[in-house]
Amino acid sequence: MRALVFAPELTFADVPDPVPAPGQVLVEVAAVSLNFGEVAYRSPVPRPRNVPGWDAAGVVVRAAADGSGPAVGTRVVTFDWSGAWAEQRAVSTADLAVVPADVDLALTAALPVAGVTAFQALRRLGPVDGRRVLVTGASGGVGRFAVQLAAKAGAHVVASVGGPQRAAGLRELGAAEIVVGPEELTERVYGVLDNVGGSQLAEAFYRLEDDGVVQAIGKASKEPTTIDFEEARVRSLRGRIENFSITAPFGEDLAHLVGLLATGELDAQVGWRGPWDRAAEAAGALLSREVRGKAVLTLA
How many alpha carbons lie under 13 Å from residue 96 in its C-beta half-sphere? Predict the structure, then answer.
C-alpha cells in the first residue's frame, strides 16, 4: 500500500499492508491530520518503511477478530502512535470512536491527539468554573481545542499567542482575554495549559494563584525551561507544575469529542486542508506557524 514516510524528508513509499491483531479493526483511511510534534520532533534516523502518524479517520473494512468494536462499513476516527499516514490502518477497538453519518469524516481526523490532549489536560486541572485559565500556544492545534473546552467548562480563558496576527478567531472560540505571551498578564491565573515550554512556561508559573497548577503539555518553542525558584518564592505563591502525559485508552474521550463536534459545540479548527499529495506543503506550513489550528490531508 501507499504511505507517507520520512526518508528523511516527507515522501511517499510502498509499504506492507497492516496485519490486525485480534483486538484491532482494519480501517480504509479517508483523512489524516499532521501535528506539529510529528513533524518537528521526528526521528533523525531515516526509517523509510516505518509509517508515522497519530490521527486517521476512515471506514472499517475488517472487523476485529475477537468480536469487539464496530462492524464492517462503520465510519470511525482512530488514535494510535504510528501507522496513520497510509491507505490502511490497523488500530485497537479501544482507541477509536464511531462517526455519525452527518459529520464530515475529514474534520474528525483533527480530533485525536490535539483534542484528547486538551480534554485530558483540562480535566487534570480539576473544576475550573469561574476560574482564570491561561492557554499558551492558543493558536495551535491543542491550544484552540483547549480554549473551547475550557470556556465550555465555565473558565475565564486567557489565550496567549505569539503575535497579534495569531489571535484571529480566538474570541469567537471563547477566549475572554488575549495576550501576547504570559508577560502581558495583569492578574494571576488558577490554571495553565502550556503548549510552548521554554521561557513562556516559566513566566506562566510565576503568575499562578496560590495552589494554582500548570499542565506542561508541549514544547513548541523547542527551548528548555529554566525556573528561578528564588524568584518563584516571591512571585508564584504555592503554585506547582505537572508534567502532562496523555493516557490511553483513548476511545471514550474521542467519542465525547466527536459528540461535541456533531452537535456544533466544538469546532475542529482546521486551518489547512488539502489532498495528501500536498503533505510536504502542509508540514512546511505547520513548521513555519502559518496554520491556525490543524492541518488535514484527504486521501483520494
Answer: 30
